[in-house]
Design a protein that fits this description.
The complex is a heterodimer of chains A (about 110) and B (about 110). Chain A is mostly beta strands and about 110 residues long. In chain A, about 0% of the residues lie in helices and about 50% in strands. Chain A contains no helices and eleven strands. By secondary structure, chain B is mostly beta strands. Classes of the chains: A mainly beta (about 110), B mainly beta (about 110).
Chain lengths: ~110, ~110
């Protein structure tokens, strides 16, 4: 079992650009969540998707969007990047609404 | 709004000493609480999950307790080793139609050889 996988591992972008991050959930999991973790802080919730529908959105601007595909994988898109978007982006999957959440290794995004 | 606090922010102990990490939360309407380990620049590794109906959960040298009414959880790590050096985060999974985990900022542990 490969667990939760994320790509790319690292990414460097300049202000104003757009970025797409990808996540494949753990086998058998149908729910995917995205979190942003700034240095020295706990992760902050961005989105949760279930059966290709957005189930909940955190307190992030509309520049952040996501989608889930029929195979349960997911993409997170961030438009018009700001320096403050630099962070570790984590994807988590779970088998059900109240299942244990498993996290991927994260994508480190640096905006210059 | 759920607020999760972890004290202390950092801890340094000699090898072999037992570790006690604290997590407090403001809203007792939770479904479960999860403890994670994070190595520098890496993702989160799930250590223990405690359902709201449970008082404690154990895995090897790790034991986590939960007192939902007082809004507290404690993670005990017995006989610490240098390999236990990491940041430990607790996260609360709320009940109802709120699906997001609320995290504390973590406790960074250093175990000195």
């Amino acid at each position: 079992d490969a667990g939760v996988t994320q790509s790319p591992t690292h990414l460097i972008k300049t202000r104003g650009q757009q970025v797409t991050l990808r996540c494949s959930p753990k086998s058998g999991h149908d729910t995917v969540s995205w979190y942003q973790q700034a240095l020295g802080q706990g992760p902050q919730f961005i989105f949760q998707y279930y059966e290709e529908e957005e189930r909940q959105r955190g307190n992030f601007p509309d520049r952040f969007s996501a989608r889930q595909f029929p195979n349960y994988s997911s993409e997170l898109n961030v438009n018009a990047l700001l320096l403050g978007d630099s962070a570790l982006y984590l994807c988590a999957s779970s088998p059900a609404r109240y299942g244990e959440q498993y996290f991927g290794p994260g994508t480190r995004l640096t905006v210059t | 709004k759920q607020e999760v606090t972890q004290i202390p922010a950092a801890l340094s102990v000699p090898e072999g000493e037992n570790l006690v990490l604290n997590c407090s939360f403001t809203d007792s309407a939770i479904y479960n609480l999860q403890w994670f380990r994070q190595d520098p620049g890496k993702g989160l590794t799930s250590l223990l999950l405690i359902q709201s109906s449970q008082r404690e959960q154990t895995s090897g040298r790790l034991n986590a307790s939960l007192d939902k009414s007082s809004g507290r959880s404690t993670l005990y790590i017995a006989a610490s080793q240098p390999g236990d050096s990491a940041t430990y985060l607790c996260a609360v999974d709320p009940s109802g139609n709120d699906y997001k985990l609320s995290f504390g900022a973590g406790t960074t542990v250093t175990v000195r050889a």
